[in-house]
Structures are given as structure tokens and as C-alpha cells.
Amino acid sequence: MAAPILVIVAHPDLAGASRVHKRWVEELARHADEFEVRDLYALYPGGTLDEVAVATERAALEEHGTVVFQFPVYWYSAPALLRTWTDEVYGFGWAYGGETAAPGEPGRALAGKHFAVAMSAGDIEANYCAEGTVGFTPSEVIVPFRATANYVGATCEPEPFTLFGTENGLTDEELERSAAAYVSWLRGLPRG
Fold first, then answer.
1. pLDDT at site 168
2. Is residue 127, in this structure, part of any structural domain at all?
3. Which residues form the Flavodoxin-like fold domain (predicted)?
């Protein structure tokens, strides 16, 4: 059996203010044999990662072929701790810097992995296009994730799973549909 999909969750208040991501994580927990969730803000409430934390995160990445980054869109990016996590975990000599090494060797630990992004957006879908107030599609918003994956020798889904309009009175029914759709989308990802 393939390793579960690793879901890296970055929501600063998953247990409190989060409605969408809390529900998504609850749904993933119902399928623990398929998905392993790492809640960065619960693991690193101080917002930093020490050497032990970096080693732990690297080990988790090494064990999984498919990694999903789940977060609410903050100013067309991810919450700060996910950026800190990337800066610390994707170190030279581990994630990159070994261009002549085979996948999995030092400097190429992420080569051959498959990444994807699952995000919630407060704004409505109609604004996520060239003519909309955002001016960019969700695929364009996640270009930094796609570029990073490319740089470390991984692949990244070009389209993120996106739930729009989360600040506009999302109904309980819409939330439940999104949780089911999210699991279905995850199950359709390539396994790296």
C-alpha cells in the first residue's frame, strides 16, 4: 500500500477562528489511513523551527511521495509560518544543491515528489481572473509553490483545490460539500 498523502496545514487559528480548515482537517482525520496531517501552528506555536524540528519535518517529507500544502490565502500568499517552514526545511544540501545527485540523495531529497496546494479564499471566484479585482487565477497565485517544486526537482499540481467566498457567509451545506470534494480531489492526486 502506498504511503498516505502528507498534508501540511498552515492556519494560525485552526482550533479557534477557522471554520473551513478545521472542517477539512476533521474530514481528513476520518481517513487517517490515507492522509497524515501536520498542523504547523500547533507543532511550532512560537513560529520557529529548531534543528530537531527541521529534522522531523524532513523525515516526514522523505516518507511521503505526495505532499499537500493546505492554508487560507493571506494577501495572495500563505501564512507566515509556512514560509518560515520552507526556508528552514528546504535547506541547501538537502532539498537542493545536489543537481548531479540521484533523487533521494543529499541535495535532491525532494526530487520526484509530487506537491499540491489546497487553499481557501475569502474573496469570490469571479474576482480570481484577469478581469477580476484580484487580477490573477488561483493557478497564478500559487506560482511560488510551483516554482519551488520545480527548483527542488518535484512536480506540483498546476491548479490548487480552492474554496472561494469563505468570508461571505459560507453555509454549512457548502462547507460539507467542500470537505467531501477536498477528499475526492486528494484521492485523485498522483502518488509520488
1. 81
2. yes
3. 5-184
Write out residues in the chain with pLDDT < 70, as ranges.
1, 192
pLDDT of residue 192: 65
DSSP string spanning 123-141? S-GGGSSTTSSS-S-HHHH
Q: Which residue has the cell 487517517?
A: 32
SS3 56: helix
- DSSP H or E run through 120: strand 114-120
Helix, strand, coil share (%) of the chain residues, nearest 5: 35, 15, 45
Q: Which of 182, 187, 189 is nearest to 24 (CA)?
A: 182
pTM to 2 decimals? Answer: 0.95
CATH of the domain at 150: 3.40.50.360
Distance CA 137, CA 145 (A): 14
Domain count of the fold of the chain: 1
Distances (CA, A) of 51 to 16, 56, 84, 180: 29, 9, 13, 37
- Beta-bridge mates of residue 96: 92
Within-domain flag for 182: yes
Q: What is the DSSP letter of 190?
A: -
DSSP string, 147-171: HHHHHTT-EE-SS-EEE--TTS---
